[in-house]
Amino acid sequence: MSANAPEQGFGLAAPTMPQFTPEQLAHLKGESKQSEMLGVIISFTVISFITVLLRYYTRFVLVKNYGPEDYLIGLAMVSTRAFRIQAAFVYRGLPEYR
Q1: What residue spans of 57-80 are helical by DSSP H?
Q2: Does residue 41 register a pLDDT over 60?
Q3: What is the DSSP-derived secondary structure letter of residue 60?
Q4: What are the angstrom distances between the C-alpha of 90 and each of 15, 22, 32, 67, 97?
Q5: Domain assignments of the chain as residue spans, ordered by start
């Protein structure tokens, strides 16, 4: 074991953090992933909404055979509203993910 590595339980050495140069830190400071996160959230929300609408059209209109799982899918879509609200907070900068 290295002489300068602190020991944790069971004789394992603690992992060392990477050291960044001041130029790398300055570059990372202005970089944010908020727009990418918002794009992914909106894309998957739209895809899931379209998928559920197509399933409902098939089950309720074409086949006219629906069950409790169809109602649970609708409940799941409604519950994702909290995730969409979180996406709005991310877009406004609260919290800021890097």
Answers
A1: 68-79
A2: yes
A3: I
A4: 31, 27, 11, 36, 8
A5: 32-98
